TrEMBL record:
GO MF: enoyl-CoA hydratase activity; long-chain (3S)-3-hydroxyacyl-CoA dehydrogenase (NAD+) activity; NAD+ binding
Annotated protein name in UniProt: enoyl-CoA hydratase
Pathway membership: Lipid metabolism; fatty acid beta-oxidation
EC number: 4.2.1.17
UniProt family annotation: In the central section; belongs to the 3-hydroxyacyl-CoA dehydrogenase family.
Residue ranges of domain 3-hydroxyacyl-CoA dehydrogenase C-terminal in the record: 498-592
Classification of source organism: Bacteria, Pseudomonadati, Pseudomonadota, Alphaproteobacteria, Rhodobacterales
UniProt KW keywords: Fatty acid metabolism, Lipid degradation, Lipid metabolism, Lyase, Multifunctional enzyme, NAD, Oxidoreductase
Biased composition (Acidic residues): 600-609
Chain residue ranges for the region called Disordered: 581-609
Length: 691
């Protein structure tokens, strides 16, 4: 099936007569024989549409033309195969002062109001993602026709903002307001079926039926029945009750002190939800003010750090076929994710049971990626269980995902040398072993490197791309490009103990275990990290990663660093020996059931220096990695830590946080901690570079 689809090529988008129309600026427009105008967004020199000031200004000009010569209907869609629109041009917004931003927003609102008021049926045809301002453009149309696989969302809260081009009042006016608020407050995406169920998408169809569906919509009126819930929330008392519940739920996941945007959104809806005009004014003013907040600045910074990492993987990898050795938890997820992203994958393991579990894992990964039934079928067809390892001979890339046993890995490398193509790349998923040492057992070491994925692969965005002294540049370039092709962010790092992420994370995790040994309840330790802004506490994270893996990495780092790590607690070794390795075993420091830890009952605030004891060793390790050139820049380190560990993104990354706090002040604090708790807190010499 896949070969046939490859031969036929991508489905051609139905753009009506605009397919052949000349592009003027960012738009193409033409009318068909039925008098329907097709207005197609096609931002030049990019594969993704964004909604910029120029896009809106040109849309205004086109609307003026349509008002002067009214069509039977207007269709708006994207010419980009990848989707409708990725949202606003964040770069232009981030540099604006509140006054300029408010002026730009008012002009943008006027354009979308004009679209909404156009005296003919308007239909947004959405394939792929309609996000942020792109979603707001679609909401200003009378109807939305979704192609199978389409999705709608407002990710602005992840940038420290909320919708700013009418999304707050148009979405709450279109569907049940509480459902609309949930989408905006969480930043989650409504995929095709959910979008239709909620009432965002009026109809769902396939590409070949677009023209007929548009013609049908042009002849019918949109139904706007929001039901009893929509009517109920027009009453201020009902909104206040719902807002109280929303604030409580939002505070748990996005505290107001760190993430003001969702809380301001709740305020706007509670106060003005019954008055569209006032809600529009409040939305514009609030959005402009949020651009000034530290949270927005740092979250926008995180957005650009992501773009920087992605650019490191530009180009064509030349990798179409992947062979994964080892169908354990990591190998199964690597194979499944690569198959979901379009690679042909063979997965080898001596255990047929492990291969069976891997196929089930692949099904779950497809479900989590919101693939349609056809897409799931195709992804599973691309992943072939391969107990004899025949796929190694055809692969462009072989990924070894075996346990952290150097002798076992070398044995497998010797076997692979008999079957791998001479030009194929071999990559290890090692998290703790020296790549240079492993390279001594490899034929063609210039094509040997590490691809260090993080667990779970289908959720964690970062991959460390690691070379040793003998790895050639082309191999690293191809591996970084491969990461980008499978929708992952490559961080190019040096072959140093723990690479980058584990080198920084281990002191954080180990200090949490030391605090437990001192009698601080695990819940108190985790709560301190959560209050700082980490996505989960270090004890929960240790359970999630796997206590056996934590122990392996900690042991591998002991004695290899310039200064000592905390002593590995005997309790950790005992738990691993008993098989209580955390989430995957159902028992670690926490009891786990249904994928979640028992919250426990530890209370209190812990010692005064608790948070600094956790966070500052992590920051210090990042300074060490910068000084030792484990990574190429401070930005790359901050990006890697945000996207691999979830380091409080509203703080902009560990090095950015240290500089905001004052590098000299942090260095002095580390010296004070070293006097109290020992030399593991001694500040690295690299702090002088940041001061």
């Amino acid at each position: 099936m896949g070969d046939v689809l490859d031969y036929l090529g991508e489905t051609r988008l139905e753009l009506g007569p605009a397919q052949a129309a000349e592009r003027k600026g960012n738009w193409r427009m033409a009318r068909d024989a039925d008098g329907i105008a097709w207005l197609v967004l096609d931002v030049p020199e990019t594969g993704t549409n964004t909604v910029s000031e120029a896009v809106l200004r040109e849309l205004d000009d086109r609307l003026a033309e349509l008002e002067a010569d009214r069509p039977k209907a207007l269709v708006i869609r994207s010419a980009k195969p990848g989707g409708f629109s990725a949202g606003a041009d964040i770069g232009s917004l981030s540099d604006m002062d509140p006054g300029a931003a408010e002026d730009l927003l008012r002009r943008g609102h006027a354009v979308l109001d004009r679209l909404e008021a156009l005296e003919c049926p308007t239909v947004a045809v959405v394939h792929g993602a309609a996000l942020g301002a792109g979603f707001e453009l679609a909401l200003a149309c009378d109807r939305r026709l979704a192609l199978d696989g389409a999705s709608f969302g407002f990710p602005e809260v992840r940038l420290g903002l909320h919708p700013g081009l009418g999304g707050t009042f148009r979405l709450t006016g279109l569907i049940a307001p509480d459902a609309a608020m949930t989408l905006m407050l969480t930043g989650k995406t409504a995929h095709t079926k959910k979008a239709k169920k909620l009432g965002i998408a009026d109809e769902v169809t396939e590409e070949r039926h677009v023209r007929a569906a548009v013609q049908a919509m042009a002849k019918s009126e949109a139904s706007r029945d929001r039901g009893l819930r929509g009517i109920a929330f027009e009453i201020g008392t009902a909104r206040s009750l719902a807002a109280r519940r929303m604030r409580s739920q939002t505070e748990d996941k996005a505290p107001k002190a760190h993430y003001p945007a969702p809380h301001r959104l709740i305020d706007i809806w509670e106060e003005h939800g019954g008055d569209r005009k006032k809600m529009q004014e409040a939305e514009i003013a609030s959005f402009a003010k949020l651009l000034e907040t530290d949270a927005a600045r740092n979250l926008i910074r995180a957005f650009f750090l992501r773009q920087t990492l992605k650019k490191a993987g530009a180009g064509d990898s030349g990798i179409a076929r992947v062979h994964v050795v080892g169908a354990g938890e990591m190998g199964a997820e690597i194979a499944a994710w690569a198959a979901v992203q379009g690679k042909r994958v063979t997965l080898a393991d001596v255990s047929t049971e492990a291969l069976g579990r891997a196929v089930r894992t692949a099904g779950e990964v497809c479900k989590g990626a919101h693939l349609s039934s056809a897409e799931t079928r195709d992804a599973l067809d691309r992943m072939m269980p391969d107990p004899k390892g025949y796929g190694a001979g055809r692969a462009d890339l072989v990924i070894e995902a075996l346990p952290e046993d150097a002798e076992l890995k070398r044995k497998v490398y010797a076997e692979l040398a008999e079957t791998m193509r001479a030009d194929a790349i071999l990559a290890s998923n090692t998290s703790s072993l020296s790549l240079s040492d492993l390279a001594t057992g490899v034929t063609g070491p210039q094509r040997f490197a590490a691809l260090h994925f993080f667990n779970p692969v289908s959720k964690m965005q970062l991959v460390e791309v690691v070379g040793h002294d003998g790895t050639d540049g082309d191999t690293l370039d191809r591996l970084a490009a491969f990461c980008t092709e499978i929708d992952r962010l490559p961080a190019r790092v040096a072959d140093a103990p723990g690479f980058l992420v584990n080198r920084a994370l281990v002191p954080y995790l180990m200090e949490a275990l030391v605090l437990m040994e001192e009698g601080v309840p695990k819940e108190v330790i985790d709560r301190a990290a959560l209050r700082f802004g980490m996505p989960m506490g270090p004890v929960t994270l240790a359970d999630q990663v796997g206590l056996d893996i934590c122990l392996d990495v900690a042991e591998s780092l002991q004695g290899q660093l310039d200064k000592p790590l905390p002593e590995i607690p005997a309790r950790l070794r005992e738990m691993v020996e008993k098989g209580n390795t955390g989430k995957k075993a159902g028992q670690g420091f926490y009891d786990w059931s249904d994928g979640a830890p028992d919250p426990g009952d530890g209370d209190g605030d812990g010692p005064e220096d608790l948070t600094d004891r956790l966070i500052l060793p992590l920051c210090d390790a990042c300074v060490t990695c910068l000084r030792a050139e484990v990574a190429r820049s401070a930005d790359e380190i901050d990006g890697a830590m945000i996207f691999a560990t979830g380091f409080a993104p509203f703080r902009g990354g560990p090095l950015h946080y240290a500089q905001d706090r004052g590098a000299e002040a942090v260095r002095e604090r580390l010296e004070a901690l070293a006097e109290t708790h020992g030399p593991r807190f001694r500040p690295d010499a690299g702090w002088t570079r940041l001061t």
